[in-house]
Task: structure prediction
Amino acid sequence: MRVPKRRIIFILLLFIVVAGFTFLHFYRVSPFKVTESDGIYVYSFNKKFSLSDILIFKTEAKIGFLELHFSNNRVMRYVRSEYGNNLSSLSEWKDVAGRTRVSPVVRIQSFFTGDGTINLGKDYCRYSGTINRDTVLEKVVSNVFFDEIFLTNFVINKQAGQTVSFLEKIGEFPLRKIDTPATIENSHVQIWENVCTSKDGKYFAVSSYDSYVYFLDSKDGRMLWHYHVPDGKLTSIVISDNGKYVFAGEQSADGNFYCLNADTGKLVWKYSTSSDLGSISDSLPVSGIWTGMVKPNVRDVIIRGDTVYIRSRRTRIIEVDGERQKIKIGRIYAFDYKTGSLKWAYPKDGKMEGYRSSTLHVSANGKYASWVIFDWDKEVNPRVFVFDAGTGNILWQYQCDTVAKYFKTSTAYSGAIFSPDAKFVSVALNDGRLVIFDNNKSLKKGRGVVHNIISLTTPIEAGTVPVMTYMTRSVFTRNNQLVVLTGHTYTTPFASTKQPPLYHPNSTSIFCLDMDGELLWRFTAGSNPSSFDLKYDQDNEYLLVSFAHNVRSQDINEHGFYVFDLTKKGGSFSKIKAFYHTDGICVDAQLTHDLNKVFAIEAVIDMDDTPRVDYRGKHRVSFFEIKND
Result:
């Protein structure tokens, strides 16, 4: 019987379709090129990958390491433990500003066999974050020649051996939807959220954008209780050292500071800073509406012994001769944290009015507190105050100057920080200088004695346009080295344009200096540092830096956080212990005191500053376990 021609064509087309879908479902992609140089083999791919992708390989040689390089400059490195100290450095590349960079690496210890598999998609999500829609596997680098290597999604029952990452995600806690996410073109994070951990590492707390304090179990992220702030936004949170109290500050008409019972979440006591600083009733609205800036904002919650310290600030808007003026108001406080009774405040009577104020700091030994005031409009340069933390009496002061060529006055928003032994005090000025004081000599003389002035981020001139970056935060290591973070690139106030023509070479970077100003190491990131945490024990010292968006490059591949092991010798890339990528911005991240876990808040970022929606990331707290060597 003769088969009709149409039926033959239909059967062939059906076969082709089935074969095509079968190939798509069970594909096999081999490298299109293999090169070798000095015993290192590079297998070139060009394949978008997904959660189901598996790398399969076969060789007779002993595998020391595998590096998987992706188009977003991520590197996942699988290493046999005894091979770890003999690895060549990672490949260098150029960022959008033309600066030489080294790819961030996730290092995974592995016990290779000569014939095995890597669950690449799952490992990428587990160790490097979510898979971006355009990410491509570009190459695999190894110390051996493979008889066979390919990428597939067909499950084969072979294993390359047990893998242990230095950073392993163990859970997450979803946070509520953000109605108006941060935009990629706005330099401010806009999502003010914080996470903190208990000293024993059993619990963590979140002050969320939705005006809730969440208290959770650090093992599984189970919520134990929550506390709602009725009229305000939470701005800060800390768990007491004994684990009995949770302290939270808010920005609201009342400017409340809350003490909560850590076991039950019930209110123990609260203090309203609006009784000292005033509230919206004594201010004109901004552009016809009541914005947060006119409401007291409680920040910088610090606990030392039985005392909790805070700073509260606000802006009062008045009209003088038909013109609106902004008056900055601030005050710092010290409370008995069990009872809420006020130990001291500065100013003692009233408030600091007419000046901007810096972050509050208290020395690790609880002896000293610091605060800096300044004002751009009044041309008042930063004035540094160091107090007796027990009484609030001023021990010494220092009046800073400025670099008049670029600024009419300087600012010092990050305040004056203390070294762990309180021998040094450091102030970062926006004109690019670090002023380091000898605290012991300053105490004896009753005035600030300068130990050193370091010009770290001096403005540079691009033709006729001077550009600058600013020092966002700084912290002392346990051996009195100074770690400084820098932010975006801007033009100076006297420049003819607000759009910088080039990147400042010291922007979006981490610097480590000694007290003589010598640069010990540096790391240049591609994004804006949003927060940091530094903790240490007898043997280890970790620096955790989280990164939000870069308004200049708008590259979301740098979102996430780095963990640096400061005890490692060598430069910054020798100190990188782990990197975790988040699709959204990393708002805040904190280490536990035992250096075994990381808790990080991710928020959604809007990639398009128009009514069109292009959101990336999720609003959540993710928690990770650090596998120490």
Summary: DSSP finds five helices and 51 strands in the chain. Residues 24-165 form a domain with the Jelly Rolls fold (CATH 2.60.120).
